[in-house]
Amino acid sequence: MGGKEVPLLAILLCSYAVFTTAQSQQKHKRSIELSAAHQLISDVRLPTDFTPLSYVLDLRPSLENSTFAGTVKINISCEQQTNKIALHSHFDMKIVVADIKIKRLKTNGTTDEELAEKIEIQRANRMPKKPIYQIFLKSPLKKGALLELHIEFSGVIWETAEGLFKGSYSDGNGDRRYYLATHTRPNNARRLFPCFDEPGFKVPFTVSISRPKNYTTLFNVRVQSTVEMDDDYEIDSFETTPPMSTISFGFVISQLTQLNATTESPLLKPIVRIWARDDYHDELKDVFEKVEKVLTYLRNYWDEDYPLCKLDIVALPAGFSSLKPVDNWGLIVFKESDLSNQGYYLLAQELAYQWLGSWVTPQWWSDAHLNKALAGFLAASAALEIDNGQEFDGKWPMTTLYSVYYEFSKRYPHSRITGLKQETTCTKTELVLRMLNYTIGAETFKKGLRKFFSEGECSTFVGENVWKALTEQAHADKTLPNSVTVNEIVESWIFKDRLPVVTVSRKYSTQTAIATQKVYLRERPHDVPEQDKMLWWIPLVVVSEDKLNFQNTTPSTWLNKVRDVQLNGLPAADKYIIVNPEEIGPFPVNYDAENWNLLSNYLQTDEGRKKIPTYTRAKLLHDAWNLAYAGDLSFATAFNMTLFMKFERDHIVWNPVFTLIDHIGAHIDMSSVHKKFQTYVRILLTPLYEELGPYAQPNEEKWKDNLRSLARLFLCQAGYRPCIEEAQAAYKKWMDIENPDDGNPVSNQYICPVFKWGTQEEWEFGLQRVINFPSSRKQSERTYLLKCLVSCPMQSSKIERLLNITILEENGNFTENDIFLEFNMLSGGSNGYLTLFNFLSDNWDVIRQRFENKTNLWDNLIGSATGVFTTQEGYDMVSELYVQRQGEFGSAEHIIEKSLRHIKEETKWSDENLPIIEKWLDNYLANANTLESKFSG
Q1: Where is the Aminopeptidase N-like N-terminal domain (predicted)?
Q2: Are 581 and 524 in contact (CB under 8 A)?
Q3: Which residues are known to be catalytic?
Q4: For residue range 299-315, what is the model confidence (pLDDT) as tens digits?
Q5: End-to-end distance of the chain based on CA atoms, in angstroms?
């Protein structure tokens, strides 16, 4: 594989065989589509009348004019009788009909001498509103005809990273340098040349590209020859590529220079080269070593050498606007900051694509997410092995997993945003791959992927190809029953925009339990359609206190798309069990109250915290709180699960605590319970913060400073006196300087505590800084100040003053965007939205008149002022306003009606949970042995 020469005729034949085989697969196999359609790609698939067999492409870009011209010869095969050829061409591309030529080929892979008669063209045009160019023939072609299609074209070079784009940077002498680069994903090759721009068309390319003489062109494959064109330009001809898709096509024309290799590894020499501007070389000096480590990992994983003849890695300077690296075949383009990043994950992901993203290519975009998930899984595995997880601070996959839990447990996941849906679906697929790696065994999983890779070499795939290879290997290794297929398991997870929750109810007298699955729903009401019909294949891995073995990830049994199953052989009644330890599968687990109490008591012992691993401790805490929030567990039990945190010092276990403090605190902050909850937070966090100390220590781990910052943030919000005093002391330095509008010497972490707990004078000083903010400073600093002025104060009078200034007095220093920001920030806490509601009620006529022609502002105001109440008192207030002002809400009528429905649901939550929370807090605070009064605000 690695760099072997293949004759052009053989490549053509391989290409044709691969594509016809893939077409046949599509007719008989159903891909597991990760979304019904890849909706971010606005595209219409080409007719199946023709198959491309090869491209011969000549490109002549002009740096000076930001244009390009070219010719392309495409060998194509007629798959069914037709008189029309359709291919992709962007709207901005110019094609002269008179220059289109079509010749019939006598044989596949023919030479020029064997070209037969010319095919006559009747007309050619672009389809209306579609990037498809149609060529109509005077006579129909028969199935099996082989043609050479010759097209001349021209186009523009873009400033954004689409198709062929142009960028610039200043070199070490301050001179302006330019570069050209391509970004053909997902369907931008059509911006560069007329083509069959679909990932399933994999054919060889023979390419020549012109460039200024003092520039270098890097392409997918190596330069074969260079010819001088004139005084200023040369043209490079490149080796013929192996069969590849248009998404893999790419080149860079620049004056970047090659780094000297820092390692003599035979793995890197001579195939890997790194390119950057001269004065950035030192920043990339360790990249060779990182590439070597990642390639070694991937080569060992696949048991295959790097599959291409070379690899150029390019660090593009400022101006490269693509958010992500561009993973062309044999040519990866990074932003400088991404390539100099100290971690391994991003680099490993792009190198994994050289096997997965290019060599084995998705047949269509519905399977591109599987490709991304595989690359992400391999990249995470590589990074974890190479640097022992330091890059992730030990958080992978917990942080990712928690975000997926939150998203899929909403009433409306993804907020109906297509891009977010595709990202979370891909992340979920990666977590399912991780689950399979555990449950069928890492070695079986790896051998199954190798099988898929070797069978798919020089090919395209659909999702079923991956699952079939894994199934065959798992059956051969006897890690999966012969009656079960990986396809069945995966299909139950990928097709749903939901995740399950498993509830384990123990029968202590018989040492058994019933495990039941249902849809995991966190937001109320739990009225998701057809939730009773949703079932998953769920692996149940069980650990018991009398047999603590967290290395065994083989399921005791599967919930094989049934509602419940019995677990046998459980320990005695005084011993706990844990299901799904280490988050083997992406699902939370609930237990009966007694098992939760056994876990809580065990975690409060030194032995318990040592024997239960970090991820499992975090899972238990995270699951308990979220299940309570969802209404599936008593908050008394959830709070009990936090008792061991006074001994816990691992940041991975603490991470979910901060999220949950935030969620619960926001939900109850209008109630009388909130003050008790703040006291609880201070007692919980003070020992941790004091042990970490207020300042970072030399050479301490990064996670410690992150943990310190989070502890300080939540302590400040809860009224921790040392924090408030520290913030006020820092803020006073700003108040005392002669020209406070020239700059802010105060760290952002101190602003909110001062505005929340500080004096009216301190808040007024901040208000004046916003009003007098000079245009010469970064506006983001003003925005942050304004956000804090609005959202942080405890006193309603501060918020009322700001609302008076900006809305009633219409102070010219505040824009409509500022007012939008105020409304949004005020919806974040009860003091804010209650003050806003009262302000609206008291000044209804004036505000209504002022906003009657500003629908967006009015709608935003009504939503922010009425939509976040959580108690019966709040419901009564909003309901009274609705009745009093019936018919006056205009465009916001549906918004306040929605608010009332929402508050009714939240009131149910409050009625059910606040008494339980308050009772637990009363008992806890009465028994707490603490100097709390010392720290209260």
Answers
A1: 52-246
A2: no
A3: 350
A4: 999 988 888 889 999 99
A5: 68
